[in-house]
Automatic annotation (TrEMBL):
It comes from Limnochorda pilosa. PANTHER family: N-ACETYLGLUTAMATE SYNTHASE, N-ACETYLGLUTAMATE SYNTHASE, MITOCHONDRIAL. The gene is argB. Substrate binds at G71, G72, R93, N191. It holds the Pfam family AA_kinase. This is Acetylglutamate kinase.
């Protein structure tokens, strides 16, 4: 992928080609697609540019992409730089007050604004939001069950997503870019896993699809063997995998997010390889699709 911004006319030309070549794009027009942006697709500059170009293109052809981004890796780097040691319990970062502040600085102040700037540079119109903006993501403290419960500090769980604000931006031609920070009833911030937020946003929007970009081909029966990719799962199978042994760590909140979205009426959720160039377009505009699809 060569660098530099694409001009408006070039984007429109490409959009025209897509509309002619792929008539079913029309069936997606006006529908929301929640895209969790993370992993290599976010940290590798060339891949980043490719994903952002595709996002802008989707908007141009009439779809409504909504971005929820991660950035946990970047937050860990900053913590270490400042002499803090990241600690996770079941994939969730133990978040004391200082870590919470840093999470806001890194995820909202830095990662979010970088994505917004890049989308705008590529010809789109992005608006960056955290859950605090317009009470977008109302959250409460997450309790860990069990007798060995650990206090995760400011880790939150989503109580409500203000879908109206997102619809407002979508209708006016903006691409909402959301960081996974929630706000409590007293205005206190909460750190929430970005996959979880993506699932909740898709559910609240009744999106047409939830797409989670990650660093592996999809869900594997054996995580060490890419040949064991599972192409399709139903909700029951997804639930079963979460409670079993095949799916671990970061894949657990992804599958849970898919289940949440499907239960709310989102027809399909996909976990796809963000390292693959144009993964989004391949998923949306080819019959085969890629990665793992979770259906109701
Ligand atoms: N069954 C599985 N199939 C695929 N990946 C799995 C599985 N179980 C655990 N994983 C792990 O989940 C990781 C993806 O989650 P995560 O690292 O949080 O991704 P991201 O940074 O994209 O949010 C994979 O890199 C893999 O190590
Ligand atoms: C509670 C919790 O763990 N929050 C995550 C939020 C960011 C995130 O989820 O980023 P990725 O999708 O890149 O992992 C964290 O602090 O890392």
């Amino acid at each position: 992928m060569s660098g530099g911004p694409l001009g408006q006319s070039e984007l429109e030309r490409r959009a025209g080609v897509l509309i002619e070549a792929l008539p079913y794009i029309r069936s997606f027009a006006g529908k929301s697609f929640v895209i969790k942006y993370g992993g290599s697709a976010m940290s590798d500059p060339a891949l980043q540019q490719a994903v952002i170009t595709d996002l802008v293109l989707l908007k141009y052809v009439g779809l409504h992409p909504v971005v929820v981004h991660g950035g946990g890796g970047r937050l860990s780097q900053w913590m270490r730089r400042l002499g803090m040691e990241p600690r996770f319990v079941e994939g969730l970062r133990v978040t004391d007050a200082e870590t919470m502040q840093l999470a806001q600085m890194v995820l909202v102040g830095s990662v979010n604004q970088e994505i917004v700037a890049l989308i705008n540079r590529m010809g789109g119109r992005a608006v960056g939001l955290s859950g605090t903006d317009g009470n977008l993501i109302v959250a409460r403290k997450r309790q860990t069950p069990g007798k060995e419960a650990v206090d995760l500090g400011f880790v939150g769980e989503v109580e409500k997503v203000n879908a109206g604000l997102i619809h407002l931006l979508e209708r006016d031609g903006y691409i909402p870019v959301i960081s996974s920070i929630g706000v409590g009833l007293s205005g206190e911030p909460y750190n929430i896993n970005a996959d979880t937020v993506a699932g909740e946003v898709a559910a609240a929007l009744k999106a047409d699809k939830l797409i989670l970009l990650t660093d592996v081909r999809g869900v594997m029966e054996d995580p060490a063997d890419p040949g064991t990719l599972i192409s399709t799962l139903d909700v029951e199978q997804a639930r079963h995998l979460v409670t079993g042994h095949a799916v671990k760590e970061g894949m657990i909140p992804k599958l849970e997010a898919c289940v949440k979205a499907l239960e709310a009426g989102v027809p399909r959720a996909h976990i796809i390889d963000g390292r693959r160039e144009h993964a989004l377009l391949l998923e949306l505009f080819t019959d085969r699709g890629i990665g793992t699809m979770v259906v109701g």
